Amino acid sequence: MDILEFENASALDVALVKQVVDLLSEAIEIHEVASLVVSGGRTPQGFFHLLSQQALDWSKVTVTLADERWVDPDHKDSNEKLVRENLLINEASSARFLPLKSSSSSAVEGEDSLEQSLSAIDTFTVVILGMGDDGHTASLFPGSEALSKGLDMDSGRSCIAVIPLEAPHDRMSMTLPRLLDSQLIIVHLCGQGKQEVLSRACDGDDHLELPIRAVLQQSCTPIRVFWAR
Predict the structure, then answer these.
(1) Class of domain 2-228
(2) Could you state, in order of their start, the residue ranges of all structural domains in the chain?
(3) With left for phi above 0 and alpha for psi between -120 and 50, is residue 67 left, alpha or beta?
(4) SS in 3 state form for 98-133?
(5) Which residues contact residue 85 at a Cβ distance below 8 angstroms, ignoring those fewer than 6 apart?
(6) What tens digit of pLDDT does each residue of 41-75 get?
(7) How far apart are CA 175 and CA 146, in angstroms?
């Protein structure tokens, strides 16, 4: 695992954009298609804006999310809304977007249709994950009933409905095996607090306590941490 440290979020965003553009460009050149999995929250917004301005054959890129709240796409808490307003603009407006939220009345009822949609995408080019103060990543929350299944590398599932214990809204999350089916995983972190959680995650081995450990401590997919002070 590589850990890259930056003095501030702006410097991190520049380096992260270069990394992602290089990976997407190479994939397009070799495979004629590329895929990018992103996460929601405040941390990636500057990265999204900068990435959206990059010259790339975006029409060959599929963008999707590591997780989503089960709310309408125009809801203020929707990750899809965040991505459409901050990433799928400028040069990136021609990218294809695969939503995790469907018209199904619940995340549980939406699992099967999303499984079919995700099966159309081969190994992801790059997956960018965040991490909560409780050690969750995507919507794989400690203490949730869905966590064990979400972390099960033999589940055969690409996505799973999650009911968080404390966070608002039911969720749809990609499972650990689907997230790891990527050429590279990047964990994007900002702030001293996240660095402390990262240190705890690297030291222990209980994946149920801090689910991010399951990502950091696996050996099948290269992982790179981008952390800004």
Answers:
(1) alpha beta
(2) 2-228
(3) beta
(4) ECCCCCCCCHHHHHHHHHHHHHCCCCECEEEECCCC
(5) none
(6) 999 999 999 999 999 999 999 999 999 999 999 99
(7) 10
